[in-house]
Every structure is written in C-alpha cells, then in structure tokens.
User: What shape does this take?
Amino acid sequence: MNNADVKLKLKEKEKEIEKLQKQLQKERLDFDSAIKLLTRKDVKLVITQQELEKKILDLERAKEEQMILRIRELAKARDIENKTAQLEKLKESLLSALADLNKARKEEEKEKNKTLAIIQNFVDGIFVLDNDNRVLLVNPQAERFLDVNGNDLIGKDFLELSHLPTLNLILNAIGKEIKDIFRKEVKIKENLILEITIAPVMLKEERFGSLIILHDITREKLLEKMKSEFVSIAAHQLRTPLSGIKWGLRIILDGEEGELRKEQKEILERIYQTNERLINLINDLLNVARIEEGRYVYKMSYVDIVSLCMSQIESLKNEIDKRDIKLDVEIKTRIPKTMVDIEKMNLVFQNLLENAVKYNKRGGKILVKFEIEKDNVKVTISDTGIGIPEKQKDKVFTKFFRSENAIKMETEGSGLGLFIVKNIIEGHGGKIWFESKEGEGTTFYFTLPIYSQSDFLEM
Amino acid sequence: MVQKILLIEDEDLLCDLLQKKLSKEGYEVFIAKDGEEGLKKVKEIQPDLVLLDIIMPKKGGFEVLEEMRNDEKLSTIPVIIISNSGQPVELDRAKKLGAKDWLIKTEFDPGEVIEKVKNIIG
Assistant: This one.
C-alpha cells in the first residue's frame, strides 16, 4: 500500500470518524433531550405520587370518620329499635282509635243523612243560609211552595233574589236584613198563605247562619176567617131579636101599656136584666172575633179617663150598695187627659170594676187609684174578694177562662172580659198585670201612655 | 105642623114598638119594610127625618142613604141609622154620607131613640 493510498485511506477514515463524530454528537443531543424529557416526566411522576399519597391519606381519614359514624349509627340504630317498638305500640293504639273514629264518622254520616232526609221530606219549606245570607240548602217543599229550582239558588245571596216573583213577596215582608227573630204571614198566591219564620242556627255557641221556615197556614187562615165571619153574622142575627125583646120589655116596664102589678114588674125587670146579660155576652163575642180578625179599630180621642171611670162606677152603684161594698177613689196628683178610644176604655173600667164588685165579699172594699208614673197614667183597682187561685194565675188573660172559685161563686160570665181588657190596654200601648191571693183579694194594675195635646194633633 | 118621620126597618116588632112610641110623642110615622119601599116613600112623603136600618132586603140602608144624598130634594133630610151592625168602617161610611147618628139597637132603649130624634128635629 502506498502512502497515498494510506493517506487516502486515512482521509477516508478521518471523514468516517468525522461522520461518526457528528452522528455521535447528534445522538448525544438526542440523548440529552431524552434525558431532559425523562427528567420532566420524573418530576411529574413525583408530583403524581405525592398527590396519590395525599389522596390515600384523605381516604384513610375519611375511612376513619366513617368508622366513627358507623359506630354512632349503630348506637342510634339500637335506640331506634327501642323507639320503633314504642312507635309500633303507639301505632296500634292509634289504629284502634282510628277505627273508632271511622265508626263514629260512619255513625255521624248516617245521622247526617237522616237529618238531611228529614229536611228533604219536611212538610215545611226550609232555606238554610250562611252568615253572609248565601243559600246553603233549599228543601223540595220550599221549591214547591215558591215554584223555584233550588239548585239555581245555592250560593246566591238570599236578599238578592227579588227578581223571582214569589221570593220578592217574601223579601218584601222580611225587609232589608235577615233578623234573628221574625214571623210574618205572606200570601204567595190564591190558596197559599205562608207563615215565614226566621231563626238563627247555632253550632256550639257560634252562629252558623239562619234558618228560614215556610209554614203553610192556608187552611188555618180559611178556618179562622170562616169562624170570624160566623161569629159576626151570628152575633148580628142574635142582636136583632134581643133588641126586640129589650125594647118591648122597656115599653111595658115603663108602664106605657098600662100599670103593672109589683110582682109583674119585678119579674119583667129580671127578664130585662137577663136579656142585657145576653146582649153583653154577644158584644164580648163580637169583640173577640174582631180582635182575632185584626179588625179591632181604635178611634182615639183626647179625654179625661178619671171621668170615664167615674161614670162606670156610677152605673154600678146599685150593685155596690146592694153588696154593702165600700168603694174609694184616690187621686193624689192631677191626671192629665189621655188619648184613648172612649168606648173601649169604658169596657176596660166596666170589666175590672164589675169583677171587683161581683167577686167581692159582702161588706168588702174596693180601692181605685190614679197615679202618674214616668210618662204613664197608672190605674190600680184592688178588691177584697175571692182572689185568683195560684195555679190558675197564668191563665187569667186567656179567652174563656174563669177561675174555679169564680165559677163556684157566680155561674154567669163568659170568661172573655179580661181577654178583651188586655187587648184594649195593649192596643193603647199600655201594660196590664195583677197581684192576687186566694181568699184575700185581687189588685189589677194597668198603665196608659200620656200623650201631650200636640202629640195628639200630629196624629 | 106635625112632623113626619119615616121608619125604614124590616123587623116587625121593632117597627111596631118604635112607631107606637113616636106616635105617642106626636110625630106622624110612616113605615117601610125594605130599602126599595123606603126610597119610594122618602120621595113621596118628604119626611122631616128618616130612621134607617142597614141590613134589609131588596136595598140595604147604605144604598138608600147614597141615593138620598145624590137626590137634591132629599139630600137635606136628616137620617139616623138604627142597626145592629156597627163596625168602625161602617160608621165612617155613614158619617161621610151625612148620617146624623148611628144607634146600635141593643145598646139603646126606645126612649133614648126618641131623645136622639128630638135633638135633631125637636
């Protein structure tokens, strides 16, 4: 091998080395970057590891806490078991209570249905209103009476139903509000007169609404009218022959048809008195019929009632003397004129004084007293007569009442007098009452309001 | 001159008794037993006073009174009602028709009726 060759070869080798060196260099660079990369990854791993370690720690801590919790829960569970047992017991008793309640509710339901059935089938018409006067219930009879459909009315204000003709009639009678106590008769149509009654509905002390009851009184009214008409006609027809008897006897008694013997005159006088009693009885019946028909009209005038009383005392003078009764009139203050119906007040004095005379003892006393009490004249008429038995006191002012001892003493008497008297006094706006002890006497009191002359002129 | 009284009353006994009593007092008494006859006689006789019952056959007392009030020749004749009816409405109606008085027969004796007559025509 020559030099050149060697040289060439060397050069070649050198080149080769250079190349290798370059390659090595490059590889080192690569390696470096790989190392760098690795190092970076290593750091990441370390961080990850740290994080993992932390998590494990957290988990362990959580596990510990859970353990504590479980222990606590276990304790609780035991407690709960006890409590559950108690609850079970409670449940049982509650269930039995519930069963009772259900039974009671069913019972109540049954009762409610019963009540409802009664209301539905009631002969009276019924409206139930709540506190705002809204209709809660209308029963079939009310629908029939008023020719309305109950379903259309439910929930509506009762006072706003005047567009319905039949309800309009009722509302006119009731007025602008539902009163707690109300009773009035309303003619709905020919052959139907209803008595309207309003009553509050209470539910344990608390007002729950109102009840409007429609009661058919058509038949009662018809009978009442027929009775009154009968009494009026009968009384009138009876009066005519009685006036014939009265006039005839009077003319004979006055000797206009020739002198009578004493005995004849006596008998005729007694017949005349008997006839007068009959006339009075018929007048009483007529007055009662008028009171009941509401036709007892008052004709008021301004009079001195003391003088009315005096003239009645005067006309009883014979009877008073005959029985040896001592009658006193006591007037301590001036009694002003009062507005009364003269004819009717005469009836009052006549009845009360007649009773005081008729049922008095022989030689008894009567005291008539006039006083002023507030804005009233108070009249007292007391006697020393037979009195009114205790157990019959509440019947004194009722029609046809006569006390047992009065019947024994005097068989005559219609039992209408005090009924009429009470009506008259109350018709004047006054009051009447009495005190009595059987065997000792009776005192009647009545009051009449005093109106001034100007009051009277205004009326 | 004798004063004439017309008694319009359907009840015979009352009629007879009153007639007797009035005649005794010196009045000339004419009788009618129902409203129709009564009205005829009022026109015929032109009495000084009429005693008039209310409930009568043919024509009632109120009709008689009304027709008298509408007749110029009869409207001034005083009328006393004698009836056994006597309700306030009836009394008012009679008063409005100019009746002088209203006597309920059972409440008055014939003597008292005569007194009322005398008070009006003497």
Observations:
- Chain B touches chain A through 21 residues (CB under 8 Å).
- The longest strand of chain B covers residues 4-8.
- The domain at 40-85+98-122 of chain B is CATH 3.40.50.2300 (Rossmann fold).
- The mean pLDDT of chain B is 89.
